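ugh ok so i messed up the first submission bc i forgot one of the chains. this is the corrected input, ALL of the components this time, i swear. 788 residues overall. if the numbers dont match what u have on ur side tell me asap before i send this to the collaborators (the ones from the other lab, u know who)
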Amino acid sequence: MTEQAVPIQPPRRAGQSTVPQDDAREHILVLFVNDRPGSVDRVVGVLRRRRANMQTLTIGRSELADVARVTVVVDDSEVGVEQLVEQLRKVVDVRHIVNLSTAQAVARELALIKVSSAPGSSSEIIELGHQFGAHPVDVTAETVTLEVTGSEEKVTKIVELLQPYGIREIARTGCVAMTRGAANADDSNNQS
Amino acid sequence: MTIAARISQREARTAATHMPAQSMEARELPGSHILCEALVREGVELMYGYPGGAIMPFYDALTSYPMLRHVLVRHEQAAAHAADGYARATGKVGVCVATSGPGATNLVTGLATAFMDSTPIVAITGQVARPFIGRDAFQETDVIGVTQPITKHNFLVRNIEDLADTVHEAFRLAKGGRPGPVLIDIPKDVQLGKGMYRPRASVSSLEYFRATHVAEPSPEAIARAAHLIASARYPLIMSGHGVILSDAYDELRAFAEKACIPVISTLLGLSAVPVDHPLFLGMPGMHGPAHVNRAIGMADLIIGVGLRFDDRVTGKVSEFAPHARIIHIDIDASEMHKVKPAAVPIVADAKAALSALVEAVEPGDHSAWIAEIRGWEAQEQERLARASREQAYPDPRGILDAIYAATNGDAIIVTDVGQHQMWTARFYPWKRPNSHITSGGLGTMGFALPAAMGVKMGVPDATVWVVAGDGGIQMNIQELATLKQLGLAVKVAIMNNGYLGMVRQWQQFFHNHNYSETPITGPDYPKLAEAYGLYGMRITRREDVATAVRTAMETEGTVIIDFVIEPESNVYPMVAPGSAITSMIEEPVEENAHHD
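and heres the new structure output, hopefully the right one now
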């Protein structure tokens, strides 16, 4: 190894006083957390204290009975996220953390969208939904409720197209994600 | 029978009771006894606490466990600081106990202090009975929620069956890796109810650590570090609290001596290397001497061991060690690159990493670099010798010199927070390893007196001096009663300038001399000492300092000396917060005062 192999200033790091916050992007963190009272609270506490720029947070069961799967989307630089991951690792109830890049992962969210329907327009709304794979889950004289699943961009797009009809209510789950391929997210070669 | 007689009778009983071999048989016990059994198994000998409603079953059980000595403090905050002081001085886990609600919330400052400074303590709090939790019961506080950000972990024990394992896990967490505080919250009905205690089914932290090795550094990282060290021209070792926590004094010295690299030390790292060691330079940062900060400005390599590049050390980060590569050794991976990007991060125990480095480095010679820094130091000394100082008052440095002289440098010095803390850090000639105990990260006023109690009880053979300001000593002054009740000898030197001195200094420098709410009065300390059944002195003249310190040493028990120092003396040099550490406010020297 030569001396030149070790630069004076190694990785640039947003969130550090010396480096601007300009190289931020979205990261999907999947945390496998002991399913004990308060464990998710501890994770959220670290995200708050370490000033993570959190976009979505999703909590649910995993394939293991005593492990909850927490998916957090944060907007930060590569190195800022590494720092955050190390802080989250110190939470006793956190078993594993995986930082999934969007290329490696299937990322989905589900949305329920309640749209106002004038007489005659409900079939138009349902037809529009079909183009996005959305299907109606509730239809009344005044409203159509669509269920849509997909990437964040897809959900945002259908919301945009439904705006002219008058959107009454939106419920979005936030992102859940899984690695592509046969390996599990928590296989050791995937851990960040 | 007087209270003192009753207490001494109990102490005598305690001393007479040999620790019985603990039964390892499974048996049914009340939760409070299971808790005591687990504490005994953890090797706990001492705890600090204060009883109250929700923790009463534990206190009831305590009289059946005379090997668990309990000290009744006068305020729960002091219990946490005392446990902290005990832990810092002994390396063992300190234990403090409080009841629910106000008892538990009074621990908070002490837990935060231990968390910032990575000291292992276990706090046990009573909680209202399980059916009352979440119903705003009398003295109910969500102490789990309150202490979550200031503990490594905390536990609410929901079942008696989990109690013993929880205690052992708490000790394991407090001690393991980067140490820190852990809290166990135990509902009253869990303490009262009966459950099966199965000692064989659980592993104490003592057994666990006997079987587990410390975090070893990766050989690749050590090789890279050795390579950087070999090519460095202006290297510095920066030694932190981690060196003391991992008892790496010998390894640090061996490494520094073999590679011939000068050593600087953070506030909490002081006393790891004796001040008179030829390689030791001093403390960097906001109140570091000029030659140390200048050396950082010129260094091309900094080997940081067991530290976190705190802002009081770095000043403006972009101008801290601008020419240096960093080798960062710390057991906590999240410290890597947090403040200063490290060229070679080494996530490992300081002792293990340093012994690996001793093997890996070639003998070096940096005597020219060291001579250059010593030259700066001499210039600075010469300049300061010209400074005109008020001669009438006892001066802070003279007080510290007198304490050193009267104790042969073997005392443990516990400081509070403020000007006196910085003077002590700067001027006390540290000799004994781990003899400097202070609240660094949190900067907790009121820390010194209760912490000294824990230090003295942890290391009974040592002389323990408290150095405090007249502001901080008035926080937790009530612990004089505890010291008296215990018959403990803690010697207290108050540097009394009638101000909250450090804040006043900032007001002088950065707020245009606007001394807003910093003048402060205090009690008549000799009379106060007398009221507590102790001895106190007030010293106003410089020539009386040494005699007073000697008198304090010769007087039995706790002694207070109120040293009346110059009201507006400052800590020099000083780096303004957020400035480069090479830009210092230096002690003014009168230009016309020549001493050739």
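quick check: The interface with chain B takes residues 1, 3, 6-11, 13, 16-18, 37-38, 41-42, 45, 49, 79, 82-83, 86-87, 89-90, 92 of chain A (CB under 8 Å). that seems consistent at least. Confidence is low (pLDDT under 50) at residues 1-20, 188-192 of chain A.
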